[in-house]
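Lecture notes, unit on protein representations.

Consider one protein chain, 619 amino acids long.
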Amino acid sequence: MFDIKEELSKLPIKPGVYLMKDARENIIYVGKAIVLKNRVRQYFQASANHTSKIKKMVSQIQSFEYIVTDSEMEALILECNLIKKHRPRYNTLLKDDKTFPYIKVTVQEEFPRVIYTRTVERDKAKYFGPYTNALAAKDIIELLRKIWKIRSCSRKLPENIGKERPCLYYHIGQCNAPCQGYIGAKEYKANIDEVIGFLSGNFSQITALLKEKMEAASENLEFEKAAEYRDQLKSINVIAEKQKIEKANNKDQDIVGCARDEKSFLIQVFFIRNGKMVGREQISIKNTEEMEQKEVLGIFIKQFYSGSPYVPKEIILQEQIEEAGIIEEWLSDRKGQKVSLLVPQKGDKSKLLHLAQKNAEISLKQFGDTFRKKQLKTKGAITHLYQLLNLEQDNFRVEAYDISNTQGLESVGAMVVFEEGEPKKREYRKFRIKTVTGTDDYASMQEVVTRRFQRGLEEQKQLLIKGLDKEYGKFSKFPGLLLVDGGKGHVSAVTEALELIGMEIPVCGMVKDDTHHTRGLIYNNLEIDLSKHQNVFNLVTRIQDEVHRFAIEYHRNLRGKAQLESVLDQIKGIGPKSRKALLLDLGSVEAIKEATLEELQKVKGINIKQAEAVYYFFR
């Protein structure tokens, strides 16, 4: 039994992070303290002047734990990581916990690549961005490949030069094939330097080069080439036009403007790199009631830059934030050089800040209703659904399952995940049915659910053994509600499977009408009519359509793969190993079909007779 009064007396006089928990051991709040003993005890003092939100949070605290750190800096870093990981209910959170697209240049490699990424590592590569439009980032990479012919493959060079054939990008003129030694490291490096200059905003050199090439092609009557250079110039001009805000200096800055009304707090960030605006992003923040603007800004800075691979030299703010000194120290440590939090009163920085603030106010006014409507359709809808089902509102993770097959062949199961009414596509999972023969949706559903939760229980066990009981694996995070595509029979089958492995999770069936459209939910053997609850109805329909789409998509992919492989199975003398060798070397059945006899004979693992059998099979 956790005795709060006794545990408070044991708190150390040291810096650290504390985690407040409710009766179900869920982490509901994470905070940091310079002195843990003083900070944590404040929550339980009757005389404390708490806001209504904090009072409500304190009333739910049943236990707490803490982690001692060596410094306030370590406490700040740990606090940021734990908030991002656990997303506690009573912490102020960025509404959209998304990562921004970056362009990565792997300068640590002898033959660097240019890659689109949202995952950033400490690997000495150069990262450019953030790009608020993923399509724009991908378009830029495509443009770079066309102009500088930079490789995109993951082959290890130079040790593997000449060991494999050049890829498709070489054949379509978008790679100089360093994998074949067709371009030396020095010349390739010169191209990479130009790419880095371009990504840094230096467009004049490449623009002049392209103009020269376009004019030369036109004079030589090579009009197709001239048109290609013209289109590339247009692409560069579009990028340059989007980066039109020029300043007297060339520092990298983030300009943070904010606006609020009674229900919303919105932040607009202008990303300025090398003196040019490369993009902007707006972030809605929740749980800001009764909080001062400087407090919200401080929380934003910690959460936003804890997940960002790039920290600019200057962050321009509307007002000074709390803990500015320690946050500057933390950001400087992350960047490896001095980072400043500035509150300008006049000059160019002040003008840019005013522009960001004005944009935030316009966005809040223009899109405030949109944000609120979206909230009703997501978090509001799932909250209403839990109320209809009389479920405790402490876990808004919903998992939905569906089975797809064709006359019992290649049966597959699919799992999709929604949290607080929004899809979490990274957590979707696919299952190939292993133990069921023929068409038996009930047994197939039981197999999928059993495998999913047995795997989750095993992951939890292993994490506990390693002392990582607060971590999550691929399957160890469990839902508060489970939805299956089907009626009473499907619900009974899944409930039975859960009971056999000792799981108690509410299960609902998503039933359809005669026209195969969502009709309602089956729960506790009763059908719940959703027609009078539009937002709930729309959310359930969306979940049902999504899991159905995901299952069918996986099934089609497997079917298509099986059909392709079956063509090779028809060739006498070609077994699984030789089929795999052909596909690995040539890439596809179509390429195998078009290959010459000499090319087939060069495939590693294929003898002369097999090569001849393949060649003459397709002719």
